[in-house]
Design goal:
Structural class: mainly alpha
Order of helices and strands: HHEHHEH
Shape: globular
Largest sheet: 2 strands, antiparallel
Oligomer: single chain
């Protein structure tokens, strides 16, 4: 999905962003479940900074741990929520 890096950083470092990260970290997470929010934020920003896009493969590749787990059963639902939320947030932040 295409993402404006400035917009992404702004959102991920807001109260709304923390809620979003907490929801996504129910689908993409570490075994220990420690610092999932921070790790996910880092992976998302790094992915977007490379080419202005974020994909699941990039997030996994850029996740700052050796191991990352993905709940495949919940992945499609999380993606749909994020796409809808992206449009709402772009309208809210005027991007």
């Amino acid at each position: 999905m295409k993402v404006n890096i400035v917009f992404l950083d702004k959102v991920l470092n807001s109260r709304i962003g923390n809620i979003i990260l907490d929801q996504i970290s129910q689908v993409i997470y570490t075994q220990s479940r420690r610092a999932d929010r921070q790790a996910l934020r880092s992976a998302l920003v790094l992915s977007a900074s490379q080419d202005g896009q974020v994909s699941l493969i990039e997030i996994i590749k850029n996740y700052p741990t050796n191991e990352v787990k993905v709940d495949g059963k919940r992945l499609q639902g999380a993606y749909r929520q994020l796409r809808g939320l992206q449009t709402s947030l772009e309208d809210l932040f005027g991007v």
